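$ run holo --ligand "coenzyme A" --emit tokens
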Amino acid sequence: MQPVPALRAMTIDDIAGGMRLCRASGWNQLEEDWRLFLDSPGSGVVLIERGGNVLGTAAYLRYDALAWIAMMLVDPAERRAGLGAHLLAEALAALADATCVGLDATPAGEPLYRRFGFVGDYSLVRTKATVDRARFPNPLGPARHMLQSDLEAVCRRDREVFGADRGRLLAAWFERAPECAWMVDDASGVKGYTFGRPGYRYYQLGPVVATDAATARDMATHCLSPLNGRVFAIDVPLLDEEWLDFLKSVGFAEERRFVRMFLRGHVHPGIPARQYAICGPEFA
Ligand SMILES: CC(C)(COP(=O)(O)OP(=O)(O)OC[C@H]1O[C@@H](n2cnc3c(N)ncnc32)[C@H](O)[C@@H]1OP(=O)(O)O)[C@@H](O)C(=O)NCCC(=O)NCCS
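-- output --
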């Protein structure tokens, strides 16, 4: 058996190598996504390289006490040789002090994570559509475009619903796709919000957070119906049938499933039932 090549921390100069792995697996990330892992406090990416080629990566990101593992990617030609396990062990060593570590597992990754002690929480489904305006009802509800000045109240609400502070991420999404940032509020406060971001192959809508499915539907209708022809993915926790039925009615089709998994117990669960779409498996 070949010795496992050495690990090291990823730098900005390695992003092109990370992008090559994304393209080889049909993933959607852009350079700015990798940069978020490199720039966020207490976060980073470990990689394995041979002869200047990046063979595998594992990223970790901190949201307060919750740490998130992502970008577990091994070059297709190098799989099943222990690189994934080696990368995961290193990322977990960097997170030894984290109260709780989470990730969204693909079927390819799930057995590896189980071996490291991760336990499944709930399932998620990736849905995807090319937006067809004609399939949406007229947007009649109170959703409105989010403004920069709304971000503080939205991030405060997000802390309760997500269970940790991901304000840095939401501010980045607001900049990258302001047309996807919608919200509903009234005198009692923020009732719902959506964010989105561009990707290499499609846009991702998420998070979508709402007090109820009707609010989620209203925001999605306002947000998506003007974006006719754009391809969107929405990653939906399998917790609300009504919401999933709505997405299917406007053309979203199920593509694949993930399992949300946690290590050391999930101590900051927030309010999962209010999370109609996650940010994406790489960002929780
Ligand atoms: C998931 C992924 C990162 C795993 O990487 P990997 O380098 O193949 O992982 P490992 O080699 O450590 O382990 C994978 C399997 O190979 C086996 N294996 C490890 N070393 C081996 C060896 N020397 N000989 C044969 N098999 C070996 C492991 O037992 C494991 O088996 P199992 O999963 O069937 O139980 C990789 O498959 C990948 O990039 N997939 C596409 C992207 C993806 O889905 N990522 C996960 C996101 S959550």
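-- notes --
The longest helix spans residues 83-94.
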